[in-house]
Amino acid sequence: MNFEKLEVWKKSARLSAELYKGTAGLKDYGFREQLTRSGLSVPSNIAEGMTRSSKKEKCRFLEIARSSMAEARTQIYIGIDIGYLSSTEGKNWLEQTHHISMMITGLIKAVESNE
Q: How far apart are alpha carbons 4 and 28 in whole angstroms?
């Protein structure tokens, strides 16, 4: 399966880019770095997982991607609460993280049933 054709990979890569752009002006380097790294981890682990040969390895990387999405989601909540992220932008990102997480879960189920 070509990861570049997966809608979940495309959406997570776009979100990662949005996180980088949306936090570029933050002076709190630690927060910005943590959020962008967790966001970048999602499409990266989807890509790595989908290039693995075994079902077990594919699922392991997809689960890491899903966990990284949860990490980013947590950081977005905190960023909104402390005023680092606007409520509008943050809520949009939260919706995207929820949707992407559901897509990853669906992909895991598809991988488990197809091999």
A: 33
- Stated pTM of the model: 0.94
The one-letter amino acid code at 93 reads W
Residues 6+ apart with CB under 8 A from 114: none
**Cα(96)–Cα(91) distance, rounded to whole angstroms?**
9
* Structure confidence at residue 22 (pLDDT): 96
Q: What are phi and psi of 53, to 5 degrees?
A: -85, -30
Q: Pseudo-torsion of CA 42, 45, 47, 48, nearest 10°?
A: 170
Cα 14 from chain centroid (whole Å): 10
Taking a C-beta distance cutoff of 8 angstroms, is the pair 39, 19 a contact? yes
